[in-house]
Specification:
The protein has twelve helices and no strands. By secondary structure, the protein is an all-alpha fold. It is extended and about 75 Å long.
Length: 354
């Protein structure tokens, strides 16, 4: 029995060695990437920015006859400043709308609360001075316990230079990528051969539309989320449905947050105001948004990344159960690279004789 099992394992290895090696190498590289992401983040963002600026760099080199270094510098920094300005304007606009939404617009009106709720809040406000005195006394007695928290605050303040340095390193990485992008095919030809490199470049050009489809798929997902949120909020006669729907969509971009971070506080507020039907409608709407998102997203991503629908659904399930968001991009990127390497003829099952 042991000899037969060993023979089967050898045959399995002999017939599927390329796939097994690819799976092991990809898994190890992905785990290393995730654990070193804070260190390699400027490099990753710089390469992504350089890839977006490649058409501009090619235009400057061919049409304006600029040198590769100067074209890379202009294209990299110009694209970076454009994205930085757009991100700054978007952040400013969102912060301004949030301030108006939460404070200046009177959305959360204290007088609209149920009298019993206002009475409880007033009692809590009256008890705040005594709680503050008790807290200050406890703080002075347990200063050694609070010191680690103070150290965390200082580490957060000291991380600001690291953030600024990361923002400065992104355009440097983009310019270096644009300047030395011609050496990437030569390096690839050195490792896998000229013919396979040509096949790989052809496959990448063929799948370049897939990247656009990937971006379009996520744009479609968030557009559906925005439309659903706006319809739900408008039908429930919630104030500022357009701004609220936009905030829900932005919160949906971050997997840790989600629409519930916006809809549930509004639901609780409506409940405290005695608007039980609106609160129930908001809660049901949040459930519908979550369910529809979990149905649409795996199917769209599976079509774009060539990932089997069952595999993507299983990855989403494992991600939700384990709380690990990285399982979803792991599965999508795995099948995307697998299809790319198979299309290029680099990866395939080794055929053996009888």
């Amino acid at each position: 029995m042991g000899v037969k099992t060993l023979a089967r394992i050898r045959k399995l290895w002999r017939d599927n060695a390329p796939y097994i090696l690819f799976f092991l190498a990809y898994t190890a590289a992905f785990i290393l990437f995730v654990h070193t992401l804070p260190l390699s983040l400027p490099l990753v963002l710089g390469i992504a920015l350089g890839a977006l600026a490649m058409p501009v760099c090619g235009f400057l080199e061919k049409r304006l006859r600029l040198s590769r270094g100067r074209a890379a510098l202009i294209a990299g920094i110009g694209t970076y400043l454009l994205f930085l300005a757009a991100a700054g304007l978007l952040l400013y606009w969102l912060c301004r709308e949030l301030v108006v939404f939460l404070t200046g617009s009177g959305y959360f009106n204290y007088d609209a609360l149920v009298p019993e709720v206002r009475r409880v809040l007033e009692q809590a406000f009256d008890a705040l001075p005594a709680l503050a005195e008790r807290f200050s006394a406890s703080l002075s007695e347990n200063l050694d316990t609070v010191l680690p928290a103070v150290g965390s605050v200082f580490r957060l303040i000291l991380s600001i230079p690291a953030l600024l340095l990361m923002l400065a390193l992104i355009p440097v990485a983009a310019c270096l990528f644009l300047q030395h992008r011609a050496g990437i095919p030569r390096l690839s030809a050195y490792w896998i051969g000229p013919r396979r490199t040509q096949q790989l470049r052809k496959a990448i050009r063929g799948l370049s539309r897939t990247s656009a489809g990937f971006a379009f798929s996520y744009f479609l997902i968030y557009a559906i989320t925005f439309c659903e949120s706006f319809i739900i909020l408008y039908q429930l006669r919630i104030q500022y449905p357009l701004i609220t729907a936009l905030i829900v969509t932005v919160s949906d971009i971050f997997p840790i947050l989600g629409p519930g971070t916006v809809l549930l506080p509004i639901c609780i507020y409506q409940l405290l105001c005695g608007n039980f039907l609106r609160a129930a409608g908001l809660f049901i709407g949040w459930i519908l948004l979550t369910v529809i998102r979990q149905i649409i997203e795996p199917r769209l991503i599976s079509k774009v990344t060539r990932t089997p629908t069952a595999a993507m659904l299983f990855a989403v399930y494992c991600s939700l159960v384990s709380g690990n968001f990285w399982l979803i991009p792991y599965a999508g990127l795995f099948f995307f690279l697998l299809d790319l390497l198979k299309t290029a003829g680099i990866l395939g099952v080794k055929k053996t004789g009888a």
